[in-house]
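Input for the complex:
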Amino acid sequence: MPGNSDETRVRIAALRKEYQEQLPGRLRELEETWKRLAGGGWSAEAFQDFHRGVHALAGSGALFGYPGVSTSARALDLQLMPLGSGPPDPETARRVAAGLAAIKEAAVS
Amino acid sequence: MNVFLKPEAWLVRERMNPEKLEKVLCVEDEEDIRKIEVIALEGLGGLKVRACSSGAEAIQEAPGFAPQIILLDVMMPGMDGPTTLKSLRTIAGLEETPVVFVTAKVQPDEMKYYLELGAVAVISKPFDPTTLAPQLRAIWDRRHAG
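Predicted:
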């Protein structure tokens, strides 16, 4: 009943490669968005997109061979949950930036 | 262990149905995760899958596809998973279709909320692609348990 496992493995490997190629760009985009949000360009919608981007990494990292990305992104995802009502204070901005740095580090280790 | 099951009434209600699990509707906005779900369920699991990228698309596709189980992401832009579930329940033929949430949000209060909404189980992200189909079959087979 199950499909051809060799073909499936090839498809999964191709998806992993695609994810690997896209990951640096996704992280860069998140960093830039957070800089804007914390640097005077606050928007609730942009924050939601940012939070969704972090949440997506939490759900996908380990699926594509980056368990550390999932773990770090999940930690940041939890930190972001109570936020969103307005621009972050400097300490929150610093913590979120540190969370992003941790994801980035997990992506290259 | 990354699957959480609702333990009670659904089992009793569905226990008599001996159908085999064949058709799954997947609703996931993240393209890469959606592709993995399709590969895991079709390629590895031999199931027939209809994949949707949003709650709105799922509401459009579900009646014609008539899924036996719906795999539903929680955090999606626009219509989120819980809202999609509520809308699906208003469609004729889908009132009782088992829904499994797939999510990275698995805090105890979140889990309680999903099950109260009517999900029969929650699979946590990241999931293992090689066990996704067996997990769904196990959820489905609980219909015949006892």
